[in-house]
Amino acid sequence: MKRSLALLEIVRMALTILIALLIGYIFLLFSTKDVGEAFKWFLYGPLSNQRRFVEFLNNSVPLMMTGLALSLVFQAKVFNIGAEGCLFFGGFGAMLMALKFPQVSFLHLVVTLLSAALFGAAWAFVPAILKARWKASELVSSLMMNYIAYLLVLFLVNNYFRDKSAGALVSYRFPQTAWLATLTRYRLNSGFFIALSVAVLIGFLLYFTKYGYQIRVVGANKKFGFYTGINVVLTTFWVQLLAGALAGLAGGIELTAMYRRFVWQSLPGYGFDGIIVAILARNNPFLVIPSALFIAYLRVGANIMSRITGLAPEVVIVIQSVMILLVTAEALLERFKKRIVEREAMKGE
Asked: Residue 313: pLDDT band by 50, 70, 90 thresholds?
C-alpha cells in the first residue's frame, strides 16, 4: 500500500512538472522566433558544461538550507516565515567573527559558521518568544523581523565595516582562515555537501527521534499533543530557534564560500524561496534535497536561456514563476483536499 501511494505521488509530481514545462513552452512561442533553441537551452543549459553544472549546484545550497528551516517549522504548523531575516542576520554574524576572531586555521572557520547559526537563532528568538509568551502571530512578527534585520545590518555594515577601497558597498574582505573551501576550478561550493549532511540529520531528527515525534504530533494536533504530555509551547519555541539557526548557517555558508565578504545590499530572497522548496517537499527534509535542486535547475536554466538567446529578463522571470506556481499549487491543493476529507470524516463521526 505504501509503495503504491509513493509511486502515485511520483507520477502526480511528474505530470505536474510536465504540464508546467508545456505551459513554459507555449509562453515561449509568443516570446521568441526560435522557440526550439530557447527551450533546448532552458532544459539542457545547466548540464551543457562543467561551469554551468557547478553554477546549478551552488544555487541550490541556500535554497536547501532555508527549505530545511521552513520545513521544520511548517511540520509543527508554525507559520514563521522569518528565514530571510535569519539568513541576513546570520551572514552579519559570520562577517563579524570572520573579521574580529583570531586567524587560527580551521578554528576560525568553525567559529564563523557557528556564529552565523547563533545569530540566526537569536533573530528567530523574537517571534518565537512573542508567540510563546503572548501568543502573538508569528507570521506577522517574523515578516517584520525580516525588514528590521535588513535595515539594521545595512546600517552597521555600511557605517562600521565598509571597505572604502572597494568599488561597491561591501564589507572588508574575510581573511583566508575564514574561507569555506571551494572545489574544482569552477568553484563548487563545499557548502553543498554540508547542506546535504544537514538535510539527512534533520530528517533523522524529525522521523527517528523523540523530539522529532513531538514536533510532528504538535503539528498534526496540538490538543492531542497537550493531553499526551507534550509541552506544546516549548516544542514550538525550540523548533523556531532551530529553524533560525539553519537559516543563519545558510547565510554564513554563502558568504564564506562564494563572496568572502558581506556583499548584500538588498534581501537576497533565499528565505522566501525556501517557502517554495518546503511546500514542494511536503515539509519532508529528505525531499528538500531534490526540491531545492529542481528549483535551482529551473532558475539556472532560465538564466542560461536568457544569456544565449537574448530573451528579456522579464520573460525569464514570468516562465520561472508560472512553473514554480504550478508545482507548488499542486502541493497546496493536496493539503487543501486532505483538510476537506478530515472535516467530512469529523462530520460523519
From this structure: low
Say if CB 300 and CB 52 are below 8 A apart: yes
CA-to-CA distance for 97 and 78, rounded, in angstroms?
31
Condensed to tens digits (0 to 9), the pLDDT of residues 272-284 reads 999 989 988 889 9
User: From CA 303, how far away is CA 309, in angstroms rounded?
Assistant: 10
Model pTM score: 0.90
Q: Rounded to 5 degrees, what are φ and ψ at 335? A: -65, -40
Cα separation, 176 vs 261, whole angstroms: 11
- Among 98, 167, 120, 51, which residue's Cα sits nearest to residue 270? 120
In 3D space, the residue among 224, 226, 244 whose CA is nearest the CA of residue 235 turns out to be 226
DSSP notation for 122-137: HHHHHHHHHHHHH---
The three cell numbers of residue 237 are 519555541
pLDDT value for 184: 80
pLDDT at 341 over 70: no
Percent helix, strand, coil in the chain, to 5, is 80, 0, 20
Which element (helix H / strand E) includes 292? Answer: helix 285-309
Element (H, E) at 206: helix 191-208
Report the 10 Å Cβ neighbour count for 263.
Answer: 18
* Residue 38 in this model has a pLDDT that exceeds 90: no
Phi/psi at 32 (5° precision): -150, 155
106-129 pLDDT, tens digit each: 999 999 999 999 999 999 999 999
Cα(252)–Cα(120) distance, integer angstroms: 10
Cα separation values, 258 from 113, 136, 296, Å: 14, 37, 16
* Tens of pLDDT, residues 244-274: 999 999 999 999 999 999 999 999 999 999 9
CB 20 within 8 A of CB 327: yes
Q: How far is CA 176 from the centre of its chain?
A: 27
How distant, in Å, are the alpha carbons of 55, 84, 127, 129 from that of 145? 30, 9, 8, 13
Q: How far apart are CA 36 and CA 85, in angstroms?
A: 40
